[in-house]
Amino acid sequence: MARIGLTGLGTMGAALALNIAEKGFDLAVHNRSNERVDDFMGSAGDLADKLTPTYELAEMVAALEAPRAVIIMVAAGAV
């Protein structure tokens, strides 16, 4: 099970996810487009072992240890 969830694998979210995984944390990752998740996992290299790809938010939540910690990345200006 992952300790942290991250949704939003744009430029900043993908870099943050890799940085967290590099520090030794297991991460469940999600993006609203499944293709982005697949592309991210393909580019993760050795860090892919620390990452759990998920394609639905419920799947990401189910992959997390309790208490659940989730990082939500949104595009600049989107909020």
Approximately how much beta-strand content do the residues carry? 25-35%
Question: What's the mean pLDDT score?
Answer: 97
N-to-C CA distance: 30 Å
What does the oligomeric state look like here? single chain
Fraction of residues in helices?
Answer: 25-40%
Number of strands: 4
Question: How large is the count of helical segments?
Answer: 3
Q: Stretches where pLDDT falls below 50 for ≥5 residues?
A: none
Q: What is the molecular shape?
A: globular
Provide tags for this entry.
79 residues; alpha/beta; Rossmann fold; four-stranded parallel beta sheet; 3 helices; 35% helix
Write structural notes for this entry.
With 79 residues, the chain is of the alpha/beta class. Helix content is 35%, strand content 28%. The chain has 3 helices and 4 strands. Strand 2, helix 2 (34-43) and strand 3 (51-53) form a beta-alpha-beta unit.
Question: What would you say about this model in short?
Answer:
The protein is α/β, with parallel strands linked by helices and 79 residues long. It has a single domain, classed as Rossmann fold (3-Layer(aba) Sandwich), CATH 3.40.50. It is built from three helices and four strands.
